[in-house]
Amino acid sequence: MFKYTMPTNIFFGKDCLKNNLVSNIDVNDKPLIVTGKRSAIVSGVQTDILEILKNKKIEYEIFNKITENPKLKTVHEGAEYFLKNNCNMVIGVGGGSPIDSAKAISVIAGNKLKNREIYNSKKIKNAYPIISIPTTSGTGTEATQYSVITDSNIDKKVGFGTPLMFPKFSFLDPKYTISLPKIITRDTAVDALSHLLEGLYSKKRSKIVYPMIFNGVKLIFENLKNTINDLENIKLREKLMLASLWGGIVIAQTGSTMQHAIGYPVTNKYSISHGLANGIVMKTVMKKYYPAVTKDLNELFDFLDIKKNDFYEWLISLDLTIGKKLDTEFIENNIATVLNTHNMANNPIKIVANDIRNIYNKIN
Ligand code: NAP
Ligand code: FE
Q1: Closest Cα to atom 20, ligand 1: which residue?
Q2: CATH number at residue 72
Q3: pLDDT level of residue 2 (50, 70, 90 thresholds)
Q4: Which atom of ligand 1 lies at the shortest distance from residue 178's CA?
Q5: Does pTM top 0.85 for this prediction?
Q6: What does the alpha-carbon distance between residue 118 and residue 149 come to, in Å, rounded to a whole number?
Q7: Which ligand 1 atom is nearest residue 273's CA?
Q8: 98 in the same domain as 23
Q9: How does the average pLDDT of the chain come out, rounded?
Q10: How many independent structural domains does the chain possess?
Q11: Which of 34, 38, 157, 186, when mutated, tests ligand 1's pocket best, judged by the most ligand atoms within 8 Å of its CB?
């Protein structure tokens, strides 16, 4: 038995925003554009949206205070701004951080949530419509019901999900990712790769998403290095964006696993990107899970026409490292956090404290 849910209307390809936002928004809408300091501007999205909104005489507001690993405090501020200005829809523009924040603002404002209530799905009964326009090819949040917001009280990344946070519309135009520098291109693609692989590891894996997983991994495996060496190549950017979208659709069905749970604390403590935090443990996690998902992983390697070791070699060649060992105190303090993360319910095997300790100790 399997279940497949994808309520988001997805538009993908050249000029998809310009050609389709216009017919899906009208003068009764007052969007809050939620973004970071630079991404909406350098990607070109802001110019394109404002042109559409101004032509249709649609009022809007901009909230551009979102940082990487967005904070609970900031999304509450965004929700207050949203309500004060009588907005009735959010448009998240940027990487996962602004889009996750737009989702959070939609439900905080929609339910007048206080303090940490956003992490309690029972409190979430309404959401304002969410539009997403990704400018990275990584998180897949444009096609998921999830958001990850750092709880500023305890300085921990906490993921949460509700079907109400599936965007109503997502517009994916690869041209918006051309301005991404090398390292962000690599790290975000590695995040997408994590989602695809975790879809295959997850207890909730189902064959309905395997074509997306296999083809998505193939697109990244065959094109990531070329893209890093040819950042303005739109054909290559398109391939990474499609892989990333598939990764989102996959985890929307399967959830993610220990791979993500383990990365969250490292991101916060060592100030590294979300994608890199996944990347530094990807090989170890794959080795750990291999006995439990041998048939599925072998099928993937056959599809790629490679051996398992070729995949490991390729991962090593991406140079996913933080250049140091994690300190023991950090490891010991975070084992329980990892074990208590909700993604752990999807692991294909039982994971205990010592497994986490060993995986953390292998990072360098
Ligand atoms: P990000 O944190 O949104 O952005 C990383 C950096 O890239 C920022 O400095 C951003 O600038 C910049 N940037 C974005 N687009 C750009 C462009 N086109 N050109 C130049 N610079 C650009 O990175 P992300 O990896 O996309 O998102 C990571 C977040 O998503 C994490 O918090 C992670 O936990 C979450 N996540 C969510 C899901 C989900 O399903 N909801 C899944 C995986 C990960 P600005 O600061 O100006 O924006
Ligand atoms: Fe991720």
Answers
A1: 180
A2: 3.40.50.1970
A3: confident
A4: 18
A5: yes
A6: 9
A7: 25
A8: yes
A9: 97
A10: 2
A11: 38
